[in-house]
From TrEMBL:
This is Malto-oligosyltrehalose trehalohydrolase. GO terms for biological process: trehalose biosynthetic process. One of its GO terms (cellular component) is cytoplasm. Pathway: Glycan biosynthesis; trehalose biosynthesis. The keyword Transcription does not apply. Residues 93-486 form the Glycosyl hydrolase family 13 catalytic domain. The lineage of its organism: Bacteria, Bacillati, Actinomycetota, Actinomycetes, Pseudonocardiales. Coiled coil: none annotated. NCBIfam families: trehalose_TreZ (TIGR02402). Its main location: cytoplasm. It comes from Saccharothrix australiensis. SUPFAM superfamilies: (Trans)glycosidases (SSF51445), E set domains (SSF81296). Substrate binds at residues 235-240, 299-303, 366-371. It is found in: Cytoplasm. GO terms for molecular function: 4-alpha-D-(1->4)-alpha-D-glucanotrehalose trehalohydrolase activity.
Length: 576
């Protein structure tokens, strides 16, 4: 066995293995090495034992010694797994710690059959990298290659991935390369990993002196999840905060190396970016001048849907009032246009030759729920009819639909911001900062949940016993039927944006999907002309075809098959 660490500006480095120190030998490129056998180890710099920046296992937390972990020792059963490509996918975002009462990978496995029954193809897991404390969202990670021990550690995550593959579910892992958390971030003690900071913490040195090894740190971490944990793709958090002025952006480098790994493994590997740039170059092929990522989130689609359904026009929502049809057509509302929230022009237009599956559409996600003052879900304020219309738009659009855990049954539980830093001063700073942030928007201190109170985590944990009760069952049946219809009708999953048309008249929005019309009514009862006779395939209420029109009750939708093509029967009405 040999221990290695990159510490380019140190004159002496030791490794403490099972309590005994061993001097390390300097090698090329700032790397230090020591051929020692052992289990628990830490690198000693200036007298301080520190965990391995590339640690695979932190059984006692992010401040303590790392433990040797042998990837080859795990017995996988997914040898026949060939992966899942992104086109046609339906993604489900979950947080391991609040997905079940157990708050573990093994607990999550017990609910995977629910996802299969729902029609999910890809499970997107919020960050599982090691962070300080027991409970948290995962975005304050500091040891990116070690799996959070309270969830079940590295073996637990492998059992989860293995179980997903056994059910035909691909796994996407949320990873954070734009900053490190406030507790346990020792990277700068080893070398010039950091360069500046952003709103969340210290950022990485991706283009300065000694940055080659820092970039390697990022890329190797990504490849490790895909190769060693059999993960099928990564969701890259807030890539707009990756400051890289080099000619070859780190995202492009990452995409190139992931493509090479995909070829070697013989299964598709997917990179999905979260980006505030509204720039489709991220998902444009490298040979066409882009970065070559597979897809990106589109918050503009979320914002336009949220405003149309809820009527909320505060914060960053005002620009999206009355903009749903335009945003559905164009992907981004802000496409080189004025953004009042940013007080500048923002974004660029999307080339309609790009396939729609490269953009994710969603009614809710962890950010858009959890970053609200009380973590209230859309279903807490929006009635069933409008929720149903929103779901129909998401699942019948050319974009890749994503569901946030519990959304599919209008879960009564909120999803609130929480953390559990053991340091009392840091915990108080998080508590005070959260309350001050929302006080500026008119919230009283007592109204904002205490993020470091264990009760906040408890409130945010899904209550699975409510699935069979109304109105939750009605919502769940609707989601299942919409996903099933999307899967059975190729028109609904067709990603070609140049074949996707949206018309709007007053409160009625119509999505044109080949021979299908998705008629969405957000106002009073209406009769909507179709231009041809039709048959209702799926509806959220008692819609009916009437000659060359369809009659819809208030706040409802209907998917209508126009005459001239073979209908697919889906015997479901959410009102039944």
């Amino acid at each position: 066995m040999s221990f290695s660490v990159w510490a380019p500006h140190h004159e002496r480095v030791a490794v403490r293995v099972d309590g005994q120190d061993h001097e390390m030998t300097a090698g090329d490129g700032g790397w230090w090495h020591s051929p020692v056998d052992g289990t628990d180890y830490a690198f000693v710099l200036d007298g301080d034992p520190l965990p391995d920046p590339r640690s695979r296992w932190q059984p006692h937390g992010v401040h303590e010694a790392s433990r040797v972990y042998d990837h080859s020792a795990f017995e996988w059963t997914d040898g026949s797994w060939t992966g899942r490509a992104l086109p046609g996918a339906v993604i489900y975002e979950l947080h391991v710690g609040t997905f079940t009462r157990a708050g573990t990978f093994d607990g999550a496995v017990e609910r995977l059959d629910h996802l299969v029954d729902l029609g999910i193809t890809h499970v997107e897991v919020m960050p599982v990298n090691a962070f300080d404390g027991v409970a948290g969202w995962g975005y304050d990670g500091v040891l990116w290659g070690a799996v959070h021990e309270p969830y079940g550690g590295p073996d637990g995550f492998k059992r989860f991935v293995d179980a997903c593959h056994a059910r035909g579910l691909a796994v996407l892992l949320d990873v954070v390369y734009n900053h490190l958390g406030p507790s346990g971030a020792y990277l700068d003690r080893f070398g010039p990993y950091f360069a500046g900071s952003n709103d969340w913490g210290p950022g990485l040195n991706l283009d300065g002196a000694d940055s080659d090894e820092v970039r390697r740190y990022v890329v190797d971490n990504a490849l490790g999840w895909l190769r060693d944990f059999h993960v099928d793709g990564l969701r890259l958090d807030a890539v707009h905060a990756l400051v890289d002025r080099g000619a070859r952006h780190v995202l492009e480098q990452l995409a190139e190396e992931v493509d090479a790994l995909s070829a070697a493994l013989g299964r598709p590997l997917t990179l999905i970016a979260e980006s505030d740039l509204n720039d489709a170059r991220l998902v444009t092929a490298r040979e066409a001048g882009g970065y070559g990522l597979a897809a990106q989130w589109s918050d503009d689609l979320h914002h336009a849907l949220h405003v149309a359904l809820s009527g909320e026009t505060t914060g960053y929502y005002p620009d999206f009032e009355g903009a749903l049809a335009r945003t559905l057509r164009d992907v981004f509302l802000h496409a080189g246009t004025w953004s009042s929230f940013r007080r500048r022009h923002h974004g660029r237009p999307v080339d309609r030759r790009l396939p729609g599956y490269r953009f994710l559409a969603y009614l809710q996600n962890h950010d858009q729920v959890g970053n609200r003052a009380v973590g209230d879900r859309l279903s807490a304020t929006v009635p069933f009819g409008r929720l149903a219309v929103g779901a129909a738009i998401v699942f019948c659009s050319p974009y890749t639909p994503m569901v946030f855990m519990g959304e599919e049954w209008a879960a009564s539980t909120p999803w609130q911001f929480f953390a559990s830093f053991p340091d009392p001063e840091l915990a108080e700073a998080v508590r005070t900062g959260r309350r001050r942030e929302f006080a500026r928007h008119g919230w009283g201190e007592s109204e904002v949940p205490d993020p470091v109170d264990p009760a906040t985590v408890e409130r945010s944990t899904l209550a699975w016993d409510e699935l069979s009760a109304e109105p939750h069952r009605r919502v769940l049946d609707l989601y299942r039927s919409l996903i099933a219809l999307r899967r059975s009708r190729p028109e609904l999953a067709d990603p070609r944006l140049d074949r996707f048309h949206v018309t709007c008249s007053g409160d009625v929005l119509v999505l044109h999907r080949g021979a299908l019309r998705v008629v969405c009514n957000l106002g009073p009862a209406a009769e909507v002309p179709l231009g041809a006779p039709g048959e209702v395939l799926l509806a959220s209420d008692a819609a009916e075809a009437a000659g060359q029109a369809v009659r819809l009750p208030a706040e409802s939708f209907a998917v209508v098959q126009l005459s001239g093509s073979q209908p697919t029967s889906v015997n479901f009405s959410a009102s039944s």
